[in-house]
Amino acid sequence: MEERNWHDKYYKIMLLIPIVIILFSLVYVTINYQQTGDFFKKDISLTGGTSVTLYDKISATQVEKDLSGKLSNLNSREIYDLGTNEQKALIIETTTDWNETQQVLEDYVGYPIVEGQNADVQFTGSVLSESFYSQLLIAILVAFAFMAVVVFIIFRNLVPSGAVIISAFADILMTLVVIDLTGIKMSTAGIVAILMLIGYSVDTDILLTTRVLKRDEDSLNTRILGALKTGLTMTLTSFFAILAALFIVQSFSIVLAQIFTILVIGLFFDMVNTWITNVSLLKWYVEHKEHKVHREAGE
Amino acid sequence: MKLGFKIWLLIIALVFSLVFIFGLPPKFLDSGVVVTSIGQNSTLFDQGLKQGQTINSVDGKSISNLQEYTAALSGKFITGVETKLILGTSNGEYTYYGNETPDLTVADIPKTNIKLGLDLAGGARALIKAENKSLSQSELSDLVSITQNRLNAFGLTDLKVSPVSDLAGNNYMLIEIAGATPKDLRDLISKQGKFEAKIGNLTVFEGGARDIASVGRDAQSARIEGCSPSSSGYTCTFAFDIVLSGAAAQRSADATANLTSDPSNQGYLSEKLDLFLDDNPVDSLAISEGLKGRVTTQIQISGSGSGNTQDEALIDAKAQMKKLQTILMTGSLPYKLEIVKLDTISPLLGEEFVKYILLAGLVAILSVAIILFVRYKRWKASLALLLTTVSEVVIILGISAFINWNLDLPSIAGILATIGTGVDDLVVLMDETGSKLTLNIKQKLKRAFTIILGAYFTTLVSLLPLMWAGAGLLKGFAITTIIGISVGVFITRPAFGELLKRFRKEE
């Protein structure tokens, strides 16, 4: 019998780390849902409303002070040119519809606002965005279910497949909670990022499970360690590539910035969930099975 | 050295992709400007000049780009002076006479066949549904064709109107207009455009082909009558001729037959011809006594535009006239419509987007490169890995150009996602083939592909719902990712495996 290293001793206890985070996340999401009726904060692409990019040098704080009584849930910020550091535009977000927002803003700035000329507009009706929102939630659920089915087909084994699925679920859950804690409002693009996350997080779990279950050379620990080395290279390349890209895009595209932020957070939790949650569950399963085999063989 | 089937496949895919992206001969070698839109009542249009043709000379002098084209035309046309213009294209020369710049927009020839979506290239996109009514497929396709007609008649040609439906079974009309957002876009696409001409309470004719045989739009039959100062700036009046159908003319004749003379307005009848647009009065025309009970098909329609300065009023009057002409020609839309989503993006912003995205992609690939060199310290294999990743992107772009897919922001996000999973798979290949086991390389590759295929199918199925959810507005993400991971699994990663096999043999 080989010597038990620290991982052999403590891997079951290590499961407490993800379990505590998962429990906290579930409580957080439940309370959040009871209080707001939603799993996360939504931006106007999911609640309905108007986002106007006004190409003018107007102070965001002033606008918020002057117009918050007229435009509901008003939010605004200034956009600067990276090179000259001069204000390029003012972005105003409100849940008021575009026709009314236009009226209010025109009265305020004193000139006609023409979309495509001195302003860009993104308007989504509230009925449409509600329908988008529910469809995208369904899309995530269906995507997750499809993924689970494929994982079952690949491994044809309940416990290891379950471990992969639990890890992917924990990954998404933890990411959503952190997103909400940082105050980011989810957009349709953010939901796309969650879908992306399903793909990314399952990659390393499949690598791990394949190496552990479908190989018979080396010891269990060596196989896990090998998978860890490969898997961490995979996740870290993605992590740093996306972090670098996030640094570039954050100044010009809110859409891409949100996708990348969610991915960076998700990839971090992917490391936790693959190399703690999934590894521990899988190791437990394999050792339990080997133990049983040994016992049946009368050793 | 023999290259082997898998590497040849990658090379062929790359060559085809480059041809799809740049065209053959490559587009960036062309000189001239490309026609992006042309007014359908322009004489150049009648001669056969079409959207998409390349203009390479103006008045016999060759031009190579937009700047030279603009320079050649600037100051050429002076109001009131008839001037001749010859535009040379590969299909021959087109001659234009007129006193103002031809109704034609051009742009620099795009250097590639890659088409950018509206959120990157600039433009407007609107999602429209009928107010308080859910449209059936056939009602929707009628609405789409009427709207297409109306926008074309208005002079917009670089646009796409299409029916879309989503997972919840809602049907929408999606309008996408490239380039600058037209003024009055909202009115044009969502107002019903119900035009009525009434005498008293009787409607004598309406907009549309049933009552209106033709609408004058050339310089003789449509004009600005004059401008004058008004209480709030300036007002300019316009007028244009229309020809009524026989039935509509008869109805007008019947309506005027019983009218009496207007005692307060000598020479005219007691009732006026009132024009309404969407139930708002546009103008009220006095009818001369001579027309009483007579069947006349020629009628003059007039109206006005206003503004703070005379120029503004003139522009407004021209726009009002164009709108009215469009509505008279195409008739009213069959439903009251509602814009449920509207996005406009200035073209200027789009150019910057592309620059930043390329930069972001470059930085991402560089950071991948650094990590890989640090981890493997094998220059040849790491370099091959990077080249494989780059060729994946090239092939995705090639296929997008081939299937005419417009790359929008979700599509770009999809390409980035592919780079990420692509690198993941290549790392799996590196590590599996690098393992110290006594298996031969073929068995090692087979093991790697078991993992890669598993990951491929999970990603593939998790993207499928996105093809339909949210009226397909996020479809781009699913499309580029599916293309990317499929190209990866079936073309680039096998080739990379083959390369690794060769490197192993050399070592």
Notable traits:
heterodimer, A: alpha+beta, four-stranded antiparallel beta sheet, 4 strands, 69% helix, B: 507 residues, alpha+beta, elongated
What is the compact description of this entry?
The complex is a heterodimer of chains A (299) and B (507). Chain A is α+β, with helices and mostly antiparallel strands and 299 residues long.
Q: Describe the sheet with the most strands of chain B.
A: 6 strands, antiparallel
Radius of gyration of chain B, in angstroms, nearest whole number = 31 Å
Strand content of chain A: 5-15%
The average pLDDT score of chain B comes to 82
Largest interface: A-B, 74 and 74 residues
Stretches of chain A where pLDDT is under 50 for at least 5 consecutive residues are: none
Describe it for me?
- The complex is a heterodimer of chains A (299) and B (507).
- In chain A, 69% of the residues lie in helices and 9% in strands.
- Chain A is built from ten helices and four strands.
- Chain A has helices at 6-14, 16-36, 44-47, 60-67, 98-109, 126-155, 158-181, 188-213, 220-249, 254-296, and strands at residues 49-54, 75-80, 87-94, 119-124.
- In chain A, helix 8 (188-213) packs parallel to helix 10 (254-296).
- Chain A is elongated and about 90 Å long.
- Chain B is of the alpha+beta class and 507 residues long.
- In chain B, helix 9 packs parallel to helix 11 (409-434) and helix 11 (409-434) runs antiparallel to helix 12 (441-463).
- The longest helix of chain B has 32 residues, at 475-506.
- Strand 4 (119-124) of chain A pairs antiparallel with strand 19 of chain B, so a sheet runs across the interface.
